[in-house]
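Task: complex structure prediction.
Instruction: return C-alpha cells for all chains below.
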Amino acid sequence: MKNVSRIIPCYAADTSGVCSALYELGGMTVVHDASGCNSTYSTHDEPRWTRMRSNIFISALTEIDAIMGNDERLISDAVSAAADRRPAFIAVCGSPMPMMTGVDFDAVAAEIESRSGIRTLALHTNGTRSYIEGASEAFEAVIREYAKECPRCGGTGVNILGMTPLDFPLGSDASVRKWLGENGLRYVSNPGMGGSLGEISRAASASVNLVVSEAGAAAARYMKETFGIPYVYGVPYGKRFAAKLAEHLKAVAGGADLPPFVNPSDGFEDADTVVIGESVSAGSLSAALWADLRMLPKPMCTLPSHRFFSRHTGGEISAEEDIEACLADMKPKTVIADPLYKYVVPEGTRLIPLPHFGFSGRCFERDMKALINTDIKEFFE
Amino acid sequence: MNAAAGRDKPECIRIADADPGALFPAGLEYNPPARGMWNIVHTGMLVPEAQEIFCCAQGCLRGVILTAAEMFELDRMSWISVSESDMFDGTLESDIVDGTAEIIHKLGRRPPVVLLYLSCIHLFAGVDFGSVIERLSEQFPDITFVDCYMTPTMRTTVSPVMKMSAQIYGALKPLPLNDKAVGLVGSDRAADEDSELVKMIRSSGRKLYDIAYCKSFEEYLQMAEAAVNISTIPTGFLAGEELERRFGAKHLHLPARYEYEALKANYSRLCEALGIDTPDFSDDIAAAEQALCEAKQVIGDTPIAIDYTAVTRPFEFALLLVRHGFNVRYVIADTAAGEEEAFGELASLVPELLIYSAVNVNMINMPEREHEHILAVGQKAAHYFSSDNFVNIIVNGGYYGFAGIAKIAGLMREAHLEPKDRAGLLRLKGMGCASCLL
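Output:
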C-alpha cells in the first residue's frame, strides 16, 4: 500500500511548511489544531525555535468546538492574540480536524481581518500533504500580497524563492547571498530565510528569480505572469555547477530565451548514483556531482516536483515500497540521502548520508552539510 | 513593573486575585522549547517487544515517528497515513486493517503485541475501532492488538496521556490474583526505591511489579497477578481503575503529596489494604525536615519558580516550601484543579506570588525579559526565567513521600549550587529515554 511505511519516516507536513515559510516575516501564524500539536513543528520541524522568536501559535481546538462548529473561538482568540502581539499580518491555516468539519478559512480570515484591522491571509492546509505544498502556498500568498510593481534595481537583482530550514541548513541564506555577490549578482529578497516584508515589497525590482526548492515555484510563476520576471530552478551546490548556475541566471535575466533549468546534466540514464530528496536540491546536487566530480548520478524526487527533475524515475516516488523497489531495480553503487533512508537501501549499496531536516528533523542536525558554492569533493568522493 | 499590564489576555496573575477554578481564559497557545515530558510514543515503548503502528494524517505522524527516531526505536514504529480522500471514499476502516496486516507481514518478526493508534479524525468519523481490532485479531491470533488513541482534540473527554497510561496494560491477560503481589501502575518512571511506599511494600514480603522494570513480554504478562495496583499520579488513575474493572485487582490511588498529613493518610490506606501495621514515620518526617532546612540554608532568599511539569501538585509543593521559609515567587501552571485548599492557603501567606500561564502567547518573549536570578524547579520554569540553576525533573521525578520531599529538597540545593546546561537538557525529548541528540 502506498500510504504504509514499515520503518522510514514521513516528511514534514503542509502546516509546518506554512509556519517555516512565514517564520521570519513578522506576522502571526495560527494553526487551527489541538493543543500540543504545535510541539511537532516547534520540536522537529523548526531549528530556529530556540534561537529566534516567532509568533506561531495553535488554536487549541477542542472536540466540542469541532462538533459545534464554533469557529468564533478561533476568530476571537486570534483577534485577542493579535491585539497583544501586534503582528505585521496574520495567517491562518488548517489541520485534519478542520478539514473534516469543513472550516471555511477564507471566511475566518476575512472575519479576523475585519475585527483586528490587520491583513489576514487564509492558507488551505489540512495536515495530509507535504511541507512543500504548505510552504508553496505561503510563499505565493505573501508575494501576491506584498510584492508591488517597482522599477528594476541596478545590476542583476535576484530573489531567492523557496528557501526554508526544512531543506537548507541554517546559514544557507548567507551562503547564497555571498555566491550572488561573488558572481556580480545583486540580492533582492529571500522571504523564507533572512528576509523581511520590506524586502518582499521590493521583490519586483529583481531581474530574475532563483527557485531553490519546489516550494518557491508557484511564487516564481506568479511573478513571471505579473511582473514579467523570469525564473531559474537551481541551488548553487559545488563550484562548477554554482558558476554555471550564475551564468544561466545572468543570461535569463538578460532576456535570453533559455529553459528555467541549467542543463540536462542533472541525471543520466546509466546513473550509478542516486540522490534522494527534495527535487531542486536533489537535481542540483546531481548536476554538481557531474560538473565537479564527474560522478554519474540521478535524482529521485520523493516530494512534489517539476517533471524536469522527476523524469529520471518516471515521476515522484514517495511510498516506502516504491522507493525500495526502485532502488532494488536500479542497484546503484551509491545512494546519497538522509541517513534514515538506510532501511531501504539495498545491501551492497553505499549510503552517503546527507541529513535533510524536512525528513529526519533534529536527528542529524549537527551533521548537516553546507554544500553551497563550496568544494564538495570531501563529502562525496 | 508588571509586564502583563494592559494585555488583552495577560500571561500572569497575582495568586490573591486568581480564581483557582479558572486561572486563565482560553486562547491561542504557545509551545515553549522544554521537551522533557513524555508523550504517548514514549509511554507505549514501555511495553516490551511491542510494535507501535500509528494511523493518522502526515502532520500528526511526523511528531510520533521522530519521537521514536530520536530514542533509537524506529524499528518499533510503523505508520499508515490518512489522506483527504480516505476520509470520504469509504476505505477508512479497511485501510487500517489492510495497512496493519501489510506492516506485520513486512516486519520480519512477529511482535507479541501491536499498539494500534488511531487519531482524532477516526473517532470523529465514527470508526468502529472494536471491529478493526476484531478483524486483525482474527487474522493474527498470535498477536494481541491494543486500541490506542492519539486524540488531542478530545483531550477534555479522553486525555491522551491518561488513556495511554491505561492502555499500556491492555495486552495483559487475566491471571489468578496473587495477594503477595502489588503493582505500581500508570507512571512512566519507576518509583524511587528509597520511598516509604516501595519500602513498605517490599518489607511486607510482597512482589512489586512496575512496567518500567519489565524487560520482556513474558515479565510484562506477570503483572496481571497483582492483587493490588497503586497509582500515584493523576494521569495514572485510569490505569488502576481499568485493571480493577478487568481483573478485579484492588486499585489504590495514593497521589504524590507534599503535605505530611495527606501522605500519612495515603500510607494508612496502603497498610490497611496490605493488612500490615502502619509504621511510625517520625524519622522519615525528620529526615524530610532536615533536608528542607539544609536546602533553605544554602538557597536562602533566592526567588524560586515552580512549574507544573516538575511536580504534579505545584501549589501544594509551593506551600510546603513557603512554610519552610523559602522565597517562592512564581508558579507556572494553567490549572489548580485538585489543589484548591493549598491554593487558598498559599494565597493568604504569599498574596503577591505570581502565577504564569505555561501556554499564553505573551509568554513567548518571557525568557528575554529581565529577571532576577531564579532557582527554577522544572524545565518550563528554567526556560521562562532563563535560569541555569534548575531542578531537572518531570512528574515528581519518580520521587514519593517524605523521602521524595527530602530528595527534591536535595536537588534544589544542588541546583542552586551547580548550574546546568539548560539548552542541552531542555531539548531532549522524554526525560530518561535514550536520545540521539546526546
